[in-house]
Design brief:
This protein has about 150 residues and is α+β, with helices and mostly antiparallel strands. About 20% of the residues lie in helices and about 35% in strands. The protein contains 3 helices and 9 strands. The chain has helices at about 1-20, 30-35, 130-135, and strands at about 35-40, 50-55, 60-65, 75-80, 85-90, 100-105, 110-115, 120-125, 135-140. It has an 8-stranded antiparallel β-barrel. A hairpin with a 5-residue loop joins strand 3 (about 60-65) and strand 4 (about 75-80). It is globular, with a radius of gyration of 21 Å.
Length: about 150
């Protein structure tokens, strides 16, 4: 019996050592965007835009957006980042309207559109307020009046 216990511990030690030696396959570029960000430049055209972005380490995102004086709307989906280019899809499978070149400058995240000339969002690192997390209109598809900014 004692030999069996020793063999089991030896096997468990070997498995633990092997698992510890495996390469981490995660994308190091995720660290550039992972976190909670706030964008509010005042206006796009004549419409006030207020956006909170949450980029999670599992490549999922949440977007809370308010256009004009309306309520915040929540959009979710997945994103990818490669060679400083951010892309994504909403939960319904619709791709974002553009891809974005990413620059992280400490407390700021700069997202420059690769489709709309000279469109850049400067986001500040900021948690989504609890009142927004608890009070939003859930939107899975955008309509003409509430198309998401991404």
């Amino acid at each position: 019996m004692k030999k069996l216990i020793v063999k089991i511990f030896a096997l468990l030690s070997l498995v633990a050592a092997f698992a510890g030696c495996q390469k981490d396959e995660t994308n190091p570029e995720l660290a550039k965007v992972t976190g909670q960000w706030h964008y509010n430049n005042g206006q796009t055209g004549a419409t006030l835009v207020d956006v909170y972005l949450v980029f999670n380490a599992d490549s999922s995102f949440e977007l809370y957006q308010k256009l004009g004086e309306g309520a915040f709307r929540k959009y979710t989906g997945t994103f990818a980042i490669e060679n400083d280019v951010l892309s994504g899809k909403y939960a319904d499978g619709t791709p974002w309207a553009a891809t974005y070149t990413v620059k992280n400058d400490g407390g700021f995240l700069y997202l420059t559109s690769n489709v709309v000339t000279e469109h850049m969002m400067r986001c500040v690192k900021k948690e989504v307020p609890a009142e927004i997390l608890n009070h939003y209109d859930d939107d899975t598809k955008a309509d003409a009046s509430g198309a998401p900014v991404l």
